[in-house]
Specification:
This protein is α+β, with helices and mostly antiparallel strands. The protein has 13 helices and ten strands. It has helices spanning 2-9, 17-35, 45-57, 62-81, 109-119, 156-168, 181-189, 194-198, 245-253, 273-280, 282-285, 296-302, 336-345, and strands spanning 121-123, 125-129, 135-140, 146-153, 174-176, 205-206, 211-214, 217-220, 226-229, 238-241.
């Protein structure tokens, strides 16, 4: 049975926790309900084709259908090559395992610095729910006077959007918190993944040689548990150059002990994505530089400069910035002095 083979596939060690969760979800949501009860010997290519068509017909995206197909193909390959239950893999359809993703936004060097500044900028105001169920907005105008917006809003996000618009056009006052400035710059220019940058400790930063040692990464499971583990691949173990802003961050915000986290959440623990998005109001922040669909992951995979010139676009050449198949990752093709020189150029 496909369900049983799925359990076999997910058993071997080495899979990352989030990968295991994704595979289990795909099996439970998209594979087992349709094919879980089918005997392996009776599973045919036409059945697989019909299964995929039904997924797409029920509203499942092309990307998710491709993930489910690749997992099913891997499960059945186990039955062919290891368990010798099947003589041929029924997943013989060409193309459905390929994900066609839209081009991600790219940033110029000035846009990276603008984003780093805006991440710590927040408008001053408060939103209160009325007895009617609508929301009232009060904001601090330039000069320090608290004012009430004349309109009420159906939802809190609507009120938040107006508050940010008031700050953008200069009518609402803002406060500046630069604790996350180095977080953005390091992710962009040193090409660190979210889990890698949140796992950095003071002992990983060499302020004399101006380098950061990447040796671990945090993974947040679906249940909220934070797991400290290895980097995504062996190539992820690397030493990368840093920009000067990190040194000021260490002096101002990081505890002196060697194991102190370089970046923390509000309560001092590892930073969570949900907490980061809440503090920064990421959807509002990324609109100003002109990249409203920017994901944090785009900083590490798209924002490494191919030419260190102002106004140049990122995302062409990854040589020397740490790369695996999907983007900049392992800095083995260039020596440390050159990396440091690039850091100083930035």
């Amino acid at each position: 049975m496909v369900r049983a083979l799925g359990d076999v596939l997910l058993g071997p060690p080495g899979l990352r926790p989030r990968t295991v969760e994704l595979y289990r979800w795909l099996l439970r949501k998209h594979i087992a309900p349709h094919l879980g009860g089918v005997q392996l010997g009776k599973l045919s290519t036409s059945m697989v084709r019909d299964w995929r068509s039904n997924l797409l017909g029920s509203g499942v995206s092309e990307t998710m259908a491709a993930k489910a197909y690749r997992l099913l193909r891997a499960v059945l390959m186990t039955a062919v090559t290891e368990d010798k239950i099947l003589s041929r893999n029924p997943c013989q359809i060409r193309g459905p395992g390929t994900e066609v993703t839209s081009e991600r936004p790219t940033l110029t060097v000035p846009q990276v610095f603008e984003l780093a500044e805006r991440v710590g900028t927040r408008p001053v105001g408060n939103i209160r729910k009325l007895d009617s169920g609508e929301f009232r907005l009060r904001y601090r105008a330039k000069g320090g006077t608290m004012r009430r917006h004349p309109a009420t809003f159906a939802t809190r996000p609507d009120a938040e959007r107006v508050l940010w618009e008031l700050a953008e056009n200069g009518r609402a006052d803002v406060v500046q918190d630069d604790r996350l400035r180095a977080f953005i710059l390091l992710a962009a220019f040193a090409s660190l993944r979210w889990g890698e940058v949140t796992a950095l400790r003071r002992c990983d930063v060499d302020t004399v040689k101006r380098t950061v040692r990447v040796r671990a990464a945090y993974v947040e499971r679906a249940n909220g548990e934070m797991i400290l583990g290895p980097t995504k691949s062996r190539a992820g173990l690397r030493t990368v150059a840093i920009i000067p802003h990190l040194e000021a961050h260490l002096e101002k915000y990081v505890r002196p002990d060697a194991e102190a986290l370089v970046f923390t959440g509000v309560k001092g623990g590892p930073m969570r994505r949900s907490g980061f998005n809440k503090v920064t109001r990421w959807p509002f922040v990324v609109k100003a530089p002109g990249v409203p669909n920017l994901h944090f992951h785009d900083l590490g995979t798209r924002a490494t400069p191919s030419r260190l010139t102002w106004g140049s676009r990122f995302g062409t050449s990854w040589r020397g910035w740490g790369t695996t198949t999907s983007g900049p990752r392992c800095a083995t093709s260039i020596d440390r002095p050159t990396l440091t020189a690039r850091s100083r150029t930035l």
